[in-house]
Amino acid sequence: MTDNHSYNTPTRGATDWHIPLNDNFERLDGDVEVRDRESNRGDYAAKAGAKFFATDTGATFIGDGSNWNRLATTGETPTYQNVSVTDPPAANTDVARKAELDAKADTAHTHSGDDISPETVTADRIEATTVVASDAGTTVWGAYQHPVPSGTTTTVEFESVETDQRSQWDDANHRIEVTEPGNYLVSAGVSWYDAPSEGTNHWFTVRQNGNLGVLQDFDRGTEDSTLQATRPVLGVQVGDTFHLEAEHYEGSELRIGGSRVSTYLSVVQL
Fold this sequence. Notes:
mainly beta, six-stranded antiparallel β-sheet, 17 strands, Tumour_necrosis_fac-like_dom
């Protein structure tokens, strides 16, 4: 006990043995660390050399006889006058400054490879110039010279099925009925066999479940007699349907023309 702290040991047979023991207790009050919340350190005497450890902040204080003085290198916000590095980087390029890291924080990263697929990538938000769909979906086309009366919303009755891996095409109702839940890429196009007159409004709409418009393209007159559009539709459920409607205000009937690349409806899972 006396090797490290120089506490007094009473001499055998001494009649005043209590004096060195009392001195030991007095010194123990300063040698033993005080542990409490930082805000409570004022409840303890700041004896010279005594140590106070704040259990809530991790800060360490040393008493000077009157006050508790915090060691700057302890606690939640330590500070240092000098820092030395024992194993420095070999080159400047091995060190990234904070400003450089901050600049990279919101930078999009490009990934490629066979391991990237909807099953292996999860994200709250994806930005891309190109959306690549899988081959699980349905594409129909072919409504050559089908009539569309003026001022009447007309469902396009496609005649040809290009692909339909899941048997989703409902020919009787001229619509695609989804059999697997998920996110889908919906694409459509209408090309007029009879060119609309100057100033004539004409457009198509893809509707989900018979009423919700999820895709549309519009034009006026003869500037563009072929309409096309594509967009992702998220959260599609089993049994949801998609069909294509065409409409115009020519004043007389217009017929649909085009080929498989200009008059079509496609619903493909992403």
